[in-house]
Amino acid sequence: MAFKVLEEFLGDCLELPVRCKDGELRTFRIPSPPAEDGLKIETIMTEGLRAAEGGTPLDSEALDDAGELDLYRMALGDAYDDVHKHLAWPRFRHVAMTAVMWITGGLDLAEQYWNSDGDPKVAQAAQNRAARRSSAAANGTQKRASTSGTSTRRATGRARKAAQT
Fold this sequence. Notes:
2 strands, mainly alpha
C-alpha cells in the first residue's frame, strides 16, 4: 500500500458560509495555522479541559504568551479581520470556535460543532481528544497492538497440557 499525497485528503483551509450583519451570505476561508500556533491552540484547549474538570490549575506558562491569550486570532489567522468586520459577537465566536474544533479535532468535529449550534459537549469532545493526544505524546510511544489479527487469550487447559508435553 502506498501513501496518498497529503493534499488529496487533508485540506489546508476551512470554508464556512455565514449570513453577515449586512444580510450578505459570505464564505469565510480560514487557513490552516502555522504548526506553532496549532500546537498552542491544542495546549490551550488541554489546559482549559483540566481547569473545567476541576483538576490541575491552568498552566501559567501555557497562558503567559500574549499570542496564546488571543485564541480566536490564532485560530482564524488571516481571516480574523474580515470575520471580525462582518459578524456580530455570537456569529464571530461560532466561526472562531469552529476553527478551533477544526484545528484540534479535524474536519468532522468542526462540522459537528458548526451544525450543533455550538453545543458545549462537542467542544468537550475536542478538548478530550486534544488531551489524549498530548498525554500520549508526553508518555512516549503508544503500546503496540497485535498485527496478527488475533487476541492474546489465555490458553485453555487442553492447550496448556499439550504445550507441556
